[in-house]
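User: Predict the structure for this protein chain, please.
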Amino acid sequence: MDRNSVIGFSLLGLLLVGYIFFNTKQQHAAELEKARQDSIAEANKPKVNTDTTASYANAGTPDSTRLAGEYGAFAGAATGTAQKAVLENKVLKITFSSQGGQPETVELKAFKTFAGTPLLLANSSFNRISMKVPANNNTLLNTADLYFAGGNVQQLADGSQSLVYRLATANPGQYLEFVYTLKQDSYAVDFDIHAVGLENVIPAGQKSLALQWDNENDKQEQDMQNERLNNQVHYKTTDGKHDYFTLQRTNHKELDSKIQWLSVKQQFFNTTFIAKKDRSFDKAEINTKVPESGNIVGQTFTTLEIPYDRAHDFTFPIEIYYGPNHYKTLKSYDIGLENIIPLGTGIFAFVKYVNKWVIIPVFNFLSGFIHNYGVIIILLTLFIRLLIAPFTYQSYVSSAKMKVLKPEIDELRKKHGDDQQAFGMDQMKLFKSAGVNPLGGCLPAVMQLPILVAMYSFFPSSIELRQESFLWAKDLSTYDSILNLPFNIPFYGNHISLFTLLMTATSLMLAFNNRGMADQSNPVMKYMPYIFPIMLLGIFNKLASALTFYYFLSNVISILLQWVIQKFIINHDKIHAQIQENKKKPASKSKWQERLEDMQKRQQDMQGRKGK
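Assistant: Here is the predicted structure, written as C-alpha cells:
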C-alpha cells in the first residue's frame, strides 16, 4: 500500500469514525423543570376525586348536583364500570376500555420482546388517547377519565371489525363518538372522531379541538442504551418536510405548521397518528421524559390540535399505525412514513439512496428464497464486493505501480531532505513521466465509503434481522456476546463481541500485509493503519452483530483478493516495463499541472529572495 493509498484509506477511516461518533454521541439535554413535569403528570393522570367517591359511599347514591357542578354536561359519564372489547386480526390485537373509549393494550402478535414476552406497544394506564372537552367553570375534562357507552364489536362485510364508543351529554342529540375500524391483516386502525351537536357545548370562537396522546415505550430489546438512542419523534408537515428529534436530547417541541402525521418511533417499532382524507393537524406540542431507571425507554405527552369548523355533524378521520419499522410496509402507505428508518443521516444522508436503490432490493430479493439471514449476509457481501471490484482492482494496480516507483521516490526524498516543496515538484514530474496517477490508490478507497456507511446504517435498522440467529449470535440485530463481564471497561463495554474481535483481527492483518508500502519515515503514516482498527474496537463492540459479521467477512475477502491479485494477476515486471516506456514519451502537461508547477516555482523564488 503506497503513501496515497494510505492517505485514501486514512481519509476513509476518519470520515467513517466521524460519522459513527456523530450518530452514537449521546447528549443528555437538561430535563424539564420540575414545575413543567408536575403539571404534565397532573394533567394526564387518571382523574380520581376522593371526596366525591367518599360521598357516594356514604350516601349510597351519586350526588347528581355535585357531579353536574364538576362535570357539567358530561356528568352522566363521570361514573361507571370499565368494560373491555377486543379488535383482532392476524397481526394485531387491541384491547379497548369503555373508560375513555380508548385502546388499553396493543399487542403485535408476530413479535416478542428480547426476553420472550408478548410485545406490547401500549400496556399501562399511562398510554392514553383523550379529547379535552369543556365542563363547568371554564375547566376542561379529559375524555380518558369518563365512561363511554357502546363498545360492541361489529363484523363488517369486507372482513373488517368495527367498534363504536359514544360519550353523550345531558342534552339529547349531543354526543362525542369514537369509531375504530380494524381491517384484515393491517397494522393500522381507523380512528374517526365524530362530534354531533357539540357546537353548543364548545365555547364560541374555539376553532380547534385538543387531542391528547400519551405514550410510554417499554424496553423491548437487549440494549437499553441503544433503544433510547433510537427513541424518537418523527413528523411530516403538509408541505412535505420530514424532521425528527430524539427524546434524550429534546424534552419540549412545538410544531406550528400543519402536520400530516406524527410518529413515536422505537428501535424497531412505531406508533403513528396520520390525518386522513387530505386533512391535517393544525399544530402539535410534544413534551418528553426519559426515566433515569427502570424498564421504561421513554415517555411522550403530545397534544394535537384538530381543526374544528363548528359544524353540527363534525368528523375528523385519523389512522393509527401500530407496527414494525419495516421499509416495504411503511412505504406502502405512500406518505413518506418509511423515512423514519435511519438509512442515512447527517453529512452522509446521501447513502440512504444507496440503501433504497441497491442494498434493500438485493436484500429483499435474497430473503425471498433464502431463510437463513447469515447466508443472506454472506451473499450480500459477495454482491457488494463484486459491485466495487473495479475500484478494488484499480487500487491494487495503483499500489503495484507505486511499489515499482518507490526506490526512485526514496532517492528524491534523500536528495531534497527537508525541502518538501522541491520534493513534491520532482515527485509530480516522476509521476507524470511514468504515467502514474498519484490519486489512483486514494480515489478507489474514497469511492467505497458510501457502501461502508450504507452498511453501517442498514444492518442496525433492519427489522428482518431482529431475533434471527447465526452461528453463536442469537440476535443479528444486536451485539453477539460470548462473555458478559461483571464490570464495565471504559470505551469498550461490559461484554465481548466475537465478531467485533474477528473484524479487528482481520483489519490488523490487512494493515500488516501492507506494512512495507507505507511511508516509513512518517510515524503517522506508518502506524495509522494499525490505529483505526483499535479505535473502532470499542465502538463496534456494541453494534449489531450483522454489521460486524459483514465487515469481518469483507476483510477476509479483501485478504484473499489481495493475495490472488498480487500473486496471479498483477505482473510487476510488466508494470515496470510499461512505466519505463512511459518515461520515454514526450511529457505533456495539463493546464492544471502547469498552474500547479508555476505556483510552486513562484513560492520557491519568494523563499529564495527572503533567504538573501
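The two ends are 41 Å apart (CA to CA).
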